[in-house]
Amino acid sequence: MTATTTTLPAARPGTWARFGRNQLAVAGGLILAAVALLAIAAPLLPLPDPNATDLPNRLAPVFSAGHLLGADHLGRDMLSRIVWGTRVSLAVGLIAAVTAAVIGSTIGIVAGFCGRWVDGVLMRAIDMLMAFPYLLLALAIVAALGPGLLNALFAISIVNIPFFARAVRGVTVGLKRRDYVAAARLSGQGNLTILTGEILPNLLPVIVITFSTTLGWMILETAGLSFLGLGAQPPQADLGSMLGEGRSLLLVAPHIALIPGLVILLVVIGINLVGDGIRDLVDPRLASGGLVRPGPATAVACDAIRQQAGNPAAPDAILSVRNLRTHFLLNEERYKAVDDVSFDLRPGECLGIVGESGSGKSVTALSLLGLVPTPPGVIVGGSIRYRGQELLGLPLPKLQELRGNRIAFIFQDPLGTLNPLMTVGEQIVETITRHQGVTHAEALTHAIGLMDRVRIPNARDRASAYPHELSGGQRQRIGIAMALANDPDIIIADEPTTALDVTIQAEVLKLLQDLRRERDTALLFITHDFGVVSELCDRVMVMYAGRIVETGTTAEVLRDPRHPYTRRLMACVPVLGQPERALDAIPGLPPAVNHLPPGCHFADRCDRVIDRCRIGSIPLEDLGPGRSSRCIRAFEP
Ligand code: ADP
Ligand code: MG
């Protein structure tokens, strides 16, 4: 059992498998492989000399005896010329691309890493190259150096250097400021070791992507120069010069121009498809369905809406959730992140959702306002009622009317959710004016009042500070101020204190507690820490692998936990004055929610497991009003 659950989570497919799923990239790869194989094998193939003239057979059509693809105006064999010509074009394009990549990336890395005057000098030089239309620049370079394949190669390398230099410099500047580079510096590493050990590996994806997307373009440019007679010189064939020679005979013998044209088309399409495939592979944000931008609200399956009628809401609850099921559909796998979750929230009440990381707490909270990204998230069932109004399937404008207004959110990472380019005061003002018809000045006064309220010292001055100018605790208070801005009925707080140190955590908790008492706001508080629950929450709901495993009032659950998982979670909280108490970390890992074992999902990690735990589905046992446990041994002492 354990073996299967530990092997299955590695559901992320390997690099080749993911490339293989991209059918276009595979098709491009096959075309490219076929063309490249022919070009490489040219000396071994039984082909006539590509430059041998055979005047009696000039302009022989395709499929004529001795000339499978016909012959050109000098009677030279087209098949042989096209194979040898492709070889030349591919080689020149590839060498030019590698040269441009190496020189351009080096310039970019040095400029980005050294900064100051080095950066200034190098980038202005690059700017000068970029100031000319690059095909004109290439023409000018070849005109100066004289026509010839080697000079065309130089020209194309030079005009492509800026693309690499610009892309690489930009990323290097960003990487240089990362913490792990600072850490490497602190550990005593020199510039060269940092460059090669820390920065270069992180730059490779950028270089590879730039390379794969410009290679096709460079082969086209080589062909272009040869077409104009500036690249390959007669009698040598390359794709561009063959196209140029065939141009004047287009009406008499179209195959002479068509065949090299077709090969250029195939090569460039092949390279571009493979390049796109590599980019999707290297940049994970673009891969696995991420190519599609998530919509403004979570998709709701039609079935879910049809089933809502049979879900009565509790009359005194402000928020009633019934049988909520939110799944992620990724790579033909179904991740049941939230499965069959029901709860009620009453005005002024604080309900805690507790569970390890990955147990589905955030997805539950985000589902309430349709904030789970689609794709891959879909709400496949259940009902969410706010003041009796069904929220699942509600039109987007109505949902947006509730978001941040009647139901507000406080996120775990305040730096990630605040706009770095706007002052914190303006961000609170924006929240206010979005939902209330007030002037900017009124909103600003209100915003400063809110900042005072969440105890930001000197609020009037701090309103014009940017998020990075505040401490972590102050930023989290701005998050709370924004949540309070429109006097919401419900505040959902998703681990709001996890990123804070203990003293600030205590202050933030006290602040939330006071606000709840003053305004009768309902609070849905998500945490993995039972210590925080005991301070703040009236009732608690324990989640494991997307399901509720225990509910009850905080006092009852703390005094007498009825699920072994709850007991283990509580054992993780240190108690002041009991230093000898062992802090039992829970052994093992939560199961992957795409392959849940039958029976109790906690069975593999449970110290009270019996055979019956692994059979069928374990229901949530009712243990009295508001008290339940998903354990078949819940009634045992
Ligand atoms: P937590 O309880 O720590 O808040 P979450 O609710 O964030 O856990 O996640 C529950 C499960 O849903 C996890 O297994 C996670 O991998 C999965 N999940 C969350 N967000 C996404 C997403 N955008 N795409 C795919 N899977 C996700
Ligand atoms: Mg979370």
**What does the overall shape look like?**
elongated
The distinct ligands, each listed once, are: adenosine-5'-diphosphate, magnesium ion
Proportion of β residues?
5-15%
Total DSSP E strands: 13
The CATH superfamily of the largest domain is known as MetI-like
Residues in helix, %: 40-55%
Structural class: alpha/beta
Into how many domains do the coordinates divide?
3
Residue-averaged pLDDT: 84
Quaternary state reads: single chain
GO biological process, one term: peptide transport
Domain ABC transmembrane type-1: 86-275
Membrane topology: Peripheral membrane protein; Multi-pass membrane protein
Family: Belongs to the binding-protein-dependent transport system permease family.
What layout of secondary structure does this protein have?
Elements lengths: L1 H6 L7 H7 L1 H18 L37 H37 L1 H15 L3 H12 L3 H28 L2 H8 L4 H37 L11 H9 L7 H28 L16 E2 L1 H5 L12 E12 L2 E13 L4 E5 L6 H8 L8 E10 L2 E2 L5 H7 L4 E4 L3 H4 L6 H12 L4 H14 L5 H4 L9 H13 L5 E5 L7 H18 L2 E6 L2 H7 L2 E6 L2 E7 H6 L4 H8 L49 E2 L5 E2 L8
Helix pairs in contact: 3-4, 3-11, 4-5, 4-7, 4-9, 5-7, 6-7, 7-9, 8-9, 9-10, 9-11, 10-11, 16-17, 17-19, 19-20
The site of magnesium ion (MG) has 4 residues, from helix 13.
Throw out a few tags for this protein.
alpha/beta, eight-stranded mixed sheet, five-stranded mixed sheet, 23 helices, 13 strands, elongated, binds adenosine-5'-diphosphate, binds magnesium ion
